[in-house]
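Hi V.,

Quick status before I head out on leave. The structure for the redesign project is tokenized and pasted below; the design run finished overnight.
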């Protein structure tokens, strides 16, 4: 009886394995045979996207290969209320994620007297950067060099994929902790808002929201769960899913305006909540390679190989944001931060080399230093609330 049971289990596993293998083979074949949706057509069909390990922006980073191998090991996430996800703890040589799920910032050399909270997506989190090269770490270093009397430490609340509303939710959760709040909250958002709008063809949703909707609605039906899993494969998804309609100029401009309005609303709400908690807020529209007045080295290829709709939507949304800045005294556009420099800084459309993070940190310091000068010095203990970094 036991022998028959084992043979049956072996056959079941074999059938399951062959089925999965067949699905993967079919998916790869469909990827090759089926055309990409019209919305994914590149800005320049002749352009080739550079490899992220060999892009000109990171050409001198001898550690970059080790970084991406470690990054793959540090990608695991866990469910977190309100924000959907945060990373699981990771202790590596280049990437440290604390037990609360936050990217670690090396502690300042001098005792901290003021705290700056940084919110945003993967650029603020530090994709492509070592712990000491993230925006948070470099902003802390710029403060140590240029305003050492302030004793500023920077805590990194950012997470890959977050849109501005998730940043706002993270801010609200952090303020709900019992220990004292920050002296300043800086939000670096925008690119993920635009990308999510492009995905969903409407503004105001997180990225990949259709996947979560499908997973939730099929949770109690195994056959639908299998279908949901299968359609997550790109080739099969092209076969069974209806591709999004191409955006004409009127629709694209309308979507850009809606996205800009949604981002501005999050910025206003963050400022209002911060005022109630006595935390000044600085909301920044983040730079992308599409913003550069003169792309450098292979940055032009990054733009050319990107979907044309995405390029146009990012640019149109930034223009719509800039038109709203006069009504947002606590907000700034950082899209021009690299225009005066001849070096390449982007290794994809949004992520920065450590040299790029340094320039962005210097700009944020210029925007924020006078706000921090008004804050009294104080002392800090290790954070015990799970909605804040341990630093």
């Amino acid at each position: 009886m036991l022998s028959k049971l084992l043979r049956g289990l072996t056959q079941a596993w074999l059938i399951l394995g062959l089925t999965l293998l067949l699905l993967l083979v079919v998916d790869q074949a469909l990827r090759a045979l089926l055309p990409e949706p019209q919305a994914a057509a590149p800005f320049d069909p002749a352009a080739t996207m550079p490899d992220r390990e060999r892009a000109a922006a990171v050409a001198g980073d001898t550690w970059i290969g080790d970084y991406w191998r470690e990054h793959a090991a540090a990608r695991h996430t866990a469910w977190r209320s309100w924000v959907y996800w945060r990373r699981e703890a990771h202790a590596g040589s280049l990437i440290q994620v604390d037990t609360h799920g936050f990217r670690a910032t090396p502690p300042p050399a001098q005792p901290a007297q003021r705290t700056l909270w940084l919110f945003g997506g993967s650029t603020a989190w530090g994709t492509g950067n070592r712990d000491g090269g993230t925006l948070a770490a470099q902003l802390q270093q710029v403060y140590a060099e240029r305003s050492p009397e302030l004793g500023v430490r920077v805590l990194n609340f950012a997470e890959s994929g977050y849109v501005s509303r998730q940043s706002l939710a993270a801010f609200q959760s952090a303020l709900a902790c019992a220990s004292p709040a920050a002296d300043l909250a800086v939000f670096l958002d925008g690119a993920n808002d635009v990308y999510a709008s492009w995905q969903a063809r409407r503004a105001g949703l997180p990225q990949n929201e259709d996947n979560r909707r499908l997973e939730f609605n099929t949770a109690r039906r195994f056959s639908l769960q299998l279908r949901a899993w299968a359609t997550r494969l790109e080739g099969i998804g092209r076969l069974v899913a209806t591709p999004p309609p191409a955006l004409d100029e009127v629709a694209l401009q309308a979507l850009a305006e809606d996205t800009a309005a949604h981002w501005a609303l999050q910025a206003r709400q963050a400022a209002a909540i911060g005022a109630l908690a006595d935390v000044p807020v600085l909301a920044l529209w983040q730079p992308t390679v599409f913003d550069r007045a003169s792309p450098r080295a292979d940055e032009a290829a990054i733009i050319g190989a990107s979907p044309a709709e995405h390029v146009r939507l990012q640019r149109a949304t930034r223009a719509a944001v800039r038109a709203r800045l006069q009504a947002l005294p606590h907000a700034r556009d950082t899209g021009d931060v690299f225009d005066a420099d001849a070096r390449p800084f982007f290794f994809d459309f949004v992520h920065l080399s450590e040299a790029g993070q340094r320039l962005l940190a210097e700009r944020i310091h210029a925007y924020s230093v006078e706000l921090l000068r008004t804050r009294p010095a104080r002392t800090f203990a290790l954070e015990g609330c799970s909605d804040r970094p341990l630093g």
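Above is the designed sequence. The radius of gyration is 23 Å.

G. will cover questions while I'm gone.

Best,
W.
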